[in-house]
Amino acid sequence: MPKKAINRTLLGILIFLFLLAGIFLTLRIRTVQTWMVNRFLARIEAKYEGRLSVEKVLIRWPRRIEFTNLLVLDPLNDTLFYSPLIRLSVTRLDLDKNRLNLSRLLIQDPVVQLRQLPSGQMNIDLLLEALKSADSTGNSTPFSLATREFILKNGSFQYRKFGSKAKPDQLALDNVLIKNIEVDIKQLDWDGTAVSATLENLAFNEQSGFSLRRFSAGVQVDPKGIRTENLVIETGNSFVESARASVTGLWNKSDSMDHLMLDLVLGQKTYLSPADLTLLSGKNTGLTT
Q1: What is the pLDDT of residues 223-240, one digit of tens each?
Q2: Is the pTM of this model over 0.90?
Q3: Please, what is the angle between helix 30-45 and helix 3-27, to 10°?
């Protein structure tokens, strides 16, 4: 091969390597990563009546991915979801099986507000429809997620039907407001229809005055209901322990609770306080003291 041809080939390879290095370094710039993620969110927003945005993105694949100030507004410009910090570490991403495996997922100070709009639709349903219509992969396999550790700190959750009002000293299932949510989960696995996890702790305060100090158990949730093992529940007034428990009929859309089936084995230390039963009693829950 002539010397000039060899030099041109080497020069071409060198330029190609420089281009690859330039692209790699550019993609590691935080502003570029943020722009790319917001472009992706804009595609979803085109199918959605609300707004989606993230202030900053940091990707150091696969060990560190961070989203700062992730915000989702519903069509009424109210917050559907917000978190100042979401951090995760990826162990495996399988696009063929539509599955994401994480070693850790942290969500800091999240706000979730599920509200029924005047049209009768839930705001979350409109977002899910937009996500589905924006999916261009053509993969019909349900998305699944597994993580060795899931931490949620200082969360807030609201579920509110249109026109409903909070009732003093009573849990209203059509107007739930939970604050100071702390969650610690190990080995969480969600396959798109069912979820299993070891719940180390769940704690929160509800606007009715009900306070959950500790909830721990091995948990399975599927279309049939909820099953637990080694359940421990502690409030400010009550203590419940159960080797096993199951509830079916939870997902029935009827307001009545007559369809619920409960199978529960209680421990000897279990004590239910009249104060907690009063908070949980009334028309909305179907429970009486």
Answers
A1: 888 999 999 999 988 999
A2: no
A3: 70
